[in-house]
Write a structure and sequence with these properties.
The chain is mainly α. The protein is 66% helix and 0% strand.
Amino acid sequence: MSDSRLTVPAGTSGPTGISGPADISKPSGPSNPAKRSDTTRAAILDAARERFAADGYERATIRAIARDAKIDPSMVMRYFGSKEGLFAAAVAVDIALPDMSALPRDEVGSTLVGHFLDQWEDNEVLTALLRVGAGSRAGAERLRGVFRDQVLPVARQVCPDPEQAATRAALAATQLLGLALTRYVLRLPPTVALSRQEIVAWLAPTVQRYLTAPHP
């Protein structure tokens, strides 16, 4: 004898109006709050970088940043606590320098210039920090901190006299920051037109000399 019971597809109603078991494999509610939070935070940081770069630290306001991010100003304070906290988060950057001690000494200059070129091209935070640093005391201090904490150790690794490390790092920075300022901020046409290979060929010997040559 055949089985007269009806099989009711999940989520549909049978003849009596009784629904079968619902499909609960995918949530039907609002999107993940954590994902929304990450999206809001990213929007605030993007707006902050643009505003700090355009107005400088002193003139940029939480209200203007919130307007650019299309959120209420209270949300900026909720995520970052203060203008200082927002600035610190907006320009936090790790330039991820390679271990220079593992390289042949005569490749330090070309490796450093090539690495910074890659960073300037791909890291919008670093470019924003350069713009802010050129026009505000807070930005300049943060930029000095990046070089103090991340470039100075490289000079200590490779220079012949550790006591000269700070001077040599500063001299290397004149080339690296000068290139970034003229190519990515001022956008001087001849500098912008240079290829990566040309920039490395021009700058690497100078940076190499600053870091490893005997004291003149």
